């Protein structure tokens, strides 16, 4: 309806780096805060839980092995019965907030990981999961390749008789024209674009934010939709974890969002 107004929020925050349980607790607190602000849809950054694996771009591959193993252990198991996301789903229901949450997803009973975005509506229902179609560059050390069957939109309840449709694209998926076109043809109203703190990474400082803004505006204009961008923040704790567990590095700095 033409009078439909949806209030959205973008999370620009730092996770409790490489700590799944504490970061999920932070997710719950952010959902509760969004409820107090009467937000209908809250969009989180790429792999907010347990944080983006910045080590893949900051160290030589042999130095990353133990970090990748730990990353798998801190990744999220998605289950229709609750799993790691049970508390977040309850928080969505209590606060009447829908979310798109970026997670590193671990397939139950295996070590296979995906860069995923989960859709949870304001009733606490897990609507679905999108797995990033193609992990970018060194991300292939960590995540498996997704597939097109997860590239779809979901309806979020807005009132008893109305809903709004949401699609997602993760990081460089926003550059994939056929992926964008697939969402456009599905009739989405809002695109949640999830990003890491790209501007904090060596070589991207001057161009990352310009590129992200251009991609968002392009999709908004060509798709005639609203785009909400959420980006991670690299804090001191993240940098300290990298130095403590892997070693000194010069490719990543604090900032982002």
Automatic annotation (TrEMBL):
InterPro entries the record matches: C-N_Hydrolase, C-N_Hydrolase_sf, Nitrilases_CHs
Record domain CN hydrolase: where: 6-257
Signal peptide (residue range): none
Transmembrane helix listed as a keyword: no
SUPFAM superfamilies reported for this sequence: Carbon-nitrogen hydrolase
One example GO MF annotation: hydrolase activity
Hydrolase in keyword set: yes
Superkingdom assignment: Eukaryota
Annotated keywords: Hydrolase
Family: Belongs to the carbon-nitrogen hydrolase superfamily. Nitrilase family.
Record-linked PANTHER family: CN HYDROLASE DOMAIN-CONTAINING PROTEIN (PTHR46044:SF1), NITRILASE (PTHR46044)
Protein name listed in UniProt: Carbon-nitrogen hydrolase
Originating organism: Hyaloscypha variabilis (strain UAMH 11265 / GT02V1 / F) (Meliniomyces variabilis)
């Amino acid at each position: 309806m033409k009078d439909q107004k949806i209030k959205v929020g973008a999370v620009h925050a730092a996770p409790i780096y490489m700590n799944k349980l504490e970061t999920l607790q932070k997710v719950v607190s952010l959902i509760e805060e969004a409820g107090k602000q009467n937000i209908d849809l809250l969009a989180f950054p790429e792999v907010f839980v347990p944080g983006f694996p910045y080590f893949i771009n900051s160290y030589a591959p042999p130095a990353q092995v133990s970090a990748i193993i730990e990353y798998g252990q801190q990744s999220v198991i998605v289950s229709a019965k609750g799993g790691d996301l049970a508390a977040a789903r309850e928080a969505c229901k209590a606060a009447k907030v829908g979310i798109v949450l970026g997670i590193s997803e671990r397939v139950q009973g295996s070590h296979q990981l995906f860069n995923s975005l989960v859709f949870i509506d304001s009733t606490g229902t897990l609507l679905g999961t999108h797995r990033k179609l193609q992990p970018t560059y060194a991300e292939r050390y960590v995540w498996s390749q997704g597939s097109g069957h997860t590239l779809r939109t979901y309806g979020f309840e807005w009132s008893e008789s109305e809903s709004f449709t949401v699609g997602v694209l993760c990081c460089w998926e926003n550059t994939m024209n056929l992926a964008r076109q697939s969402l456009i043809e599905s009739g989405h109203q809002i695109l949640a674009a999830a990003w890491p703190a790209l501007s904090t990474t060596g070589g991207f400082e001057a161009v990352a934010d310009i590129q992200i803004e251009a991609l968002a505006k392009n999709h908004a204009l060509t798709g005639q939709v609203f785009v909400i961008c959420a980006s991670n923040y690299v804090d001191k704790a993240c940098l300290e974890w990298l130095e403590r567990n892997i070693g000194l590095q010069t490719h990543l700095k604090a900032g982002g969002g």
